[in-house]
User: Which sequence fits this backbone?
């Protein structure tokens, strides 16, 4: 018996690592070859919790975009949580993720939102300054993640699980 | 849109057959509780078990989590478990519903190839503009540094010029009046010895002032040469005028000669050349009690050879290296100077790309030989005040951690050592230390990642990164991540102390 399932949509600009984060989380795999996602790929994972029922997350890996169109909005229907993904080496992708969050809020006012600042393994090329994340943390759970190394990935999804099934 | 009912039956049939074939349409009919009732079409093509396994059904069911299946739904471009893409339509139908899957693989491939090209172009453009920005930043930083250096150099030159003037003007006056007095007092006359004493002192003061000014210029600034045509006859005459009386007063024979076999005019930094010769001759006269001092200049093959030989006390072999160190007073038996002269000579000879050779035998004499090619080239007082505050050292190597702990404790600081970055982050956030010292390479997170995470969570304390990597890239990465300072291993403890003092002073 598991809690859920909960639909979690990965939202972010293209090339920020949404598909890679899902691969790392669900299959513990990573490829550095960039292949753009068209449409949506749906995966699921039961997240174990010590002494409690596991939680099933259904992960919607949606094609990257910097603004929601009607197709993108259609994909969001029924989502309980949004995992916003931005690429630390492209500051503009953070603005895209926040823009997507604002638009998604119109459709999903109560959805849980978590921000994954991805590509932490490339910290020497980051454009996002630490104070920016300090500010964001006042209103949003923020995790520095690396799909390449796995760093921070479990923590980001664990925060979603904790928020959906406290 | 075509009204298919109006189409001729033959066309309608062909169209229907074509659409069904090309779309690989698959229909799955379900009861409201997702019990599979019927399957129509090629389920295997879509990687769905014809027996509709529980896993297959669950995967389809996951598509509608959170969505009311009482209404028609359409989800375009869904990637299935077998990698193919389909358009999924949910059709509500009274007490059941149907899922219609239409193959979209070809359309997806077309869209993907176009999108991939477009996205890669944007990513490449971003990388290119970053590279251009980086180059632009490097160039403006270089320009800023050059401007700062020029400004500092101009200030230093102005100071040195002023100081030189301040020293030289009264010395010139004193030498001039001394000469007038010497002309009025014949050798052996009353006061002659006193005038000789004044000359010795003035000569020493002149050499000392010039040496201190040269020393103050430093290695970098002093390396700049100002070559001019040098009048070697005048140089020789000045040396004779300056030292012959001093040598005569000690009963020494002073010989000075110039050989010239190159018709070209010698070009050297005249001030530096004079300083070299004066230092060497001054030393020779000072350390010779009997015999002679000889200065020989030879200008040949675009090289100036300077030879200064004496029959003085000589320099023991064990002191011959030390005499070129600054402030070496005592290296030479019976020395009375500041110990700067020969170190300045060596520095100036190196700046002029020349060579310097020394031959000496105690009790016999000393000979310096220089070969100069024609030109066509401080530390703050130690602060020992005990420090106060807490230091968190994050270092996984036990030996290094021990050394750091001992070093910081010796400065009066409270030290805590942690071997892992994640634990250190927790410590630092729970009880921010006055100084955080991170090793760059830690087992769980790199020092850079840890410092970035701390900064991104609002940590503002002083942070020092230690690393065995001496590259500027590594240093820049650490500073970008949020470290205040970057020091390399092996640890220079004096520098570590100075850095800790600086950071703690800033933090307070």
Assistant:
């Amino acid at each position: 018996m598991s809690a859920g399932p909960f639909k979690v949509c990965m939202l972010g600009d293209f090339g920020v690592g949404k598909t890679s984060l899902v691969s790392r989380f669900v299959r513990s795999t990573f490829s550095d070859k960039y292949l753009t996602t068209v449409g949506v790929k749906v995966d699921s994972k039961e997240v174990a919790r010590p002494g409690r029922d596991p939680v099933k997350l259904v992960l919607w890996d949606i094609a990257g975009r910097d603004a929601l169109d009607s197709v993108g909005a259609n994909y969001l229907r029924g989502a309980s949580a949004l995992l916003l993904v931005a690429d630390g080496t492209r500051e503009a992708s953070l603005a895209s993720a926040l823009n997507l969050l604002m638009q998604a809020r119109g459709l999903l006012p109560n959805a849980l939102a978590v921000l994954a600042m991805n590509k932490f393994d490339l910290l020497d090329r980051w454009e996002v300054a630490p104070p920016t994340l300090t500010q964001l943390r006042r209103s949003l759970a923020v995790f520095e993640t690396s799909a390449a190394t796995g760093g921070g990935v479990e923590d980001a999804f664990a925060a979603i699980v904790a928020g959906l099934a406290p | 849109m075509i009204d298919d009912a109006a189409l001729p039956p033959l066309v309608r049939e062909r169209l229907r057959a074509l659409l069904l074939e090309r779309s690989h349409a698959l229909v799955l009919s379900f009861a409201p509780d997702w019990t599979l009732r019927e399957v129509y079409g090629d389920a295997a093509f879509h990687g769905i078990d014809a027996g509709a396994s529980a896993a297959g059904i669950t995967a389809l069911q996951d598509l509608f989590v959170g969505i009311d299946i009482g209404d028609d739904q359409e989800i375009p471009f869904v990637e299935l478990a077998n990698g193919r893409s389909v358009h999924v339509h949910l059709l509500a139908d009274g007490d059941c519903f149907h899922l219609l899957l239409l193959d979209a693989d070809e359309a997806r491939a077309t869209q993907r190839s176009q999108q991939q090209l477009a996205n890669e172009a944007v990513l490449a453009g971003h990388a290119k503009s970053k590279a251009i920005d980086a180059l632009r930043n490097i160039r403006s930083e270089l320009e800023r540094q050059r401007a700062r250096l020029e400004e500092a150099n101009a200030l230093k030159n102005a100071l040195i010029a002023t100081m030189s003037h301040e020293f030289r003007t009264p010395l010139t006056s004193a030498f001039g009046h001394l000469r007038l007095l010497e002309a009025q007092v014949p050798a052996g006359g009353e006061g002659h010895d006193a005038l000789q004493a004044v000359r010795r002192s003035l000569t020493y003061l002149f050499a000392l002032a010039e040496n201190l000014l040269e020393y103050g210029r430093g290695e970098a600034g002093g390396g700049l040469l100002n070559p001019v045509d040098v009048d070697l006859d005048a140089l020789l005459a000045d040396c004779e005028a300056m030292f012959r009386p001093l040598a005569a007063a000690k009963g020494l024979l002073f010989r000075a000669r110039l050989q010239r076999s190159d018709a070209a005019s010698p070009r050297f930094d005249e001030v530096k050349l004079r300083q070299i010769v004066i230092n060497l001759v001054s030393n020779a006269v000072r350390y010779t009690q009997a015999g002679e001092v000889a200065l020989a200049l030879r200008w040949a093959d675009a090289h100036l050879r300077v030879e200064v030989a004496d029959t003085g006390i000589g320099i023991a072999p064990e002191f011959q290296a030390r005499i070129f160190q600054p402030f070496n007073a005592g290296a030479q038996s019976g020395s009375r100077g500041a110990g700067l002269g020969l170190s300045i000579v060596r520095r100036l000879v190196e700046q002029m790309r020349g060579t310097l050779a020394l031959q000496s035998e105690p009790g016999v004499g000393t000979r310096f030989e220089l070969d100069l090619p024609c030109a066509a080239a401080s530390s703050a007082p130690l602060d020992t005040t005990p420090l106060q505050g807490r230091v968190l050292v994050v270092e996984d190597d036990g030996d290094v951690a021990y050394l750091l702990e001992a070093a910081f404790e010796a400065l009066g600081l409270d030290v805590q050592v942690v071997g892992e970055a994640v634990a250190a982050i927790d410590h630092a956030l729970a009880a921010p230390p006055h100084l955080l010292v991170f090793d760059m390479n830690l087992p769980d997170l790199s020092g850079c990642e840890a410092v970035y995470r701390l900064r991104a969570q609002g940590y503002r304390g002083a942070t020092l990164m230690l690393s065995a990597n001496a590259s500027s890239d590594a240093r820049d990465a650490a500073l970008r991540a949020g470290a205040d300072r970057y020091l390399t291993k092996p640890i220079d403890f004096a520098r570590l102390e100075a850095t800790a003092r600086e950071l703690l002073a800033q933090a307070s």
